[in-house]
Amino acid sequence: MSLKLGIIGYGNMASGWHAKIPTQLPEVDLVAVHDIDPERVAAARADGYRAYDSLGDFLKDEEVNFVLVATPNDFHKPLAIAVMEAGKNVMVEKPATLSARDWEEMMAVSSRTGRVLTVHHNRRWDLDYLSMKLNLSKGYIGKPYAITSAHQQWRPVKGPQKWRDIPEHGGGFFYDWGVHLCDQILMLDPENKVKSVYLQTKSIHRPLVDDFAKLQLTMADGLLIEVYLSTYVQKPLPRWTVYGDMGTFDVKDFGCHGGTVKSIAYEACGMQMEKEGEPVEFPIEVAQVRDGITRDDEREAGGAAWVELYRNLADVVDNGAELIVKPEQVLRTMKLLDAAFQSARTGEVVHTDI
């Protein structure tokens, strides 16, 4: 059968990324697009796809068996529900929706209709994240007691206001990128619950939404997590810094262009280790690319395996495989976001059991 993909919302993410998946995976075929913007409908047709300006007509397309919803965040819930009610599987762009309660309603429709519901959490396959997980699992720095995750960029305000600058659409940098980093943190150890949440945000150049965020989490085992997000930083923090009782390591950026391990008792492979004052380079070793399948290989910088998410969806459709990005995992992330925004509104620590 393979995955016959339909896309709702033919904007930059859909046309610039998702539409290119079929060129990398033969088991995925993009066949139809729906958008309410006539120019985007025309663009989809020019790209060779069946394009609909009517949602009803799009949902009647019998060839489509999986739909990606790539619209502003506040439309995810009603559109995903409509897709599942029409008998089709659905993946929404992140964040899944605007609250955990909304996601629970979407999960209920998925259960009732028997349709697959998931989220495009492609950052689980980022090279920096996989490398950090690998080095953490090797025990090179002993038991970790603190982890810092940072995504800081220099992106001054340009152009007119877009939907991500509007609160009602679920705009803001924390919704846009915080959801990725929170999902990564929670997937490090799914059994390690979040016990406290403290979020501080600032609106520096975007007056209605946040463009700076600092999130602090305390986990059940005592692990301390800090997440930094900013759009106006010339010299960003390392993408990851992990502190252990026997040493520390960092990952410089998304492409793993450098990184250092300083260890009291262990030699490290996978990044750079300072040894007698001289940095020693090692290849980046990536393991556990997909749940249940272990791969050990060396990759060039920038080799993130994002297509693995789509490969899993095709396997789900064709063979009934286990879904990797599970609704229950997404619900946990949404509960964390809810607690974080509550903390930002009140200025207080929120105690949780997430």
Regions with pLDDT < 50 over 5+ consecutive residues?
A: 263-303
Average pLDDT level: 85
The helix count comes to 9
Category by helix and strand content: alpha/beta
Helix content: 25-40%
The largest pleated sheet is described as:
10 strands, mixed
- The number of domains is 2
The string of secondary-structure elements, in order, is EHEHEHEHEHEHEHEEEEEEEEEEHHE
Q: Provide the CATH superfamily of the largest domain.
A: Dihydrodipicolinate Reductase, domain 2
Rough shape? globular
How would you sum up this structure, described in words?
- It is a single chain.
- With 354 residues, the chain is α/β, with parallel strands linked by helices.
- The chain has two domains: 3-123, Rossmann fold; 124-306 and 335-346, Dihydrodipicolinate Reductase, domain 2 (2-Layer Sandwich), CATH 3.30.360.
- The chain has nine helices and 18 strands.
- It has helices spanning 12-16, 38-46, 55-59, 76-85, 100-113, 127-137, 173-188, 307-319, 327-346, and strands at residues 3-8, 28-34, 50-52, 66-69, 89-92, 117-119, 144-152, 194-202, 212-219, 224-230, 240-244, 247-251, 259-263, 272-275, 278-281, 285-286, 297-298, 350-351.
- 41% of the residues are buried.
- Residues 263-303 have low confidence and may be disordered.
- Residues 135-350 form the Gfo/Idh/MocA-like oxidoreductase C-terminal domain.
- Residues 4-121 form the Gfo/Idh/MocA-like oxidoreductase N-terminal domain.
